[in-house]
Amino acid sequence: MPYNEKKRESNRRWDRANLDRLSVAFPAGSKDAIQDAAERAGKSVNRFIIDAVMEAVKPLEEAGTEDAET
User: Fold this and answer.
1) Cα separation, 67 vs 70, whole angstroms
2) How many angstroms separate the Cα of 30 from the Cα of each of 14, 26, 27, 51, 58?
3) Alpha carbon 2 to chain centroid distance?
4) What is the pLDDT of residue 67?
């Protein structure tokens, strides 16, 4: 099935409804290291970055929950 404008717009609607987008800039020279690390981990670069960020966020969220209870 050819990828046409109708399909493209359908994908855009799904993305808007289901994804949050952030633009992140890394220091020059970081791209290759990130791509290599993602490949070694068997992940896409997107999934690798999401997993790394969420791993850092989780303990902070848990600490915030504990602070709210006391």
Assistant:
1) 6
2) 31, 6, 6, 17, 24
3) 28
4) 62
pLDDT at 70: 52
Q: Which parts of 1-70 fold into alpha helices (H)?
A: 5-18, 30-41, 45-69
pTM of the model: 0.72
Q: Which residues contact 38 (CB under 8 A, 6 or more apart)?
A: 44, 45, 47, 48, 49
Stronger pLDDT, 53 or 66, i.e. the higher one: 53
Rounded CA gap, 14 and 21, in Å?
A: 13
Tell me if 37 sits within 8 A of 48, measured CB to CB: yes
Q: How far apart are CA 18 and CA 2, in angstroms?
A: 24
pLDDT at 64: 83
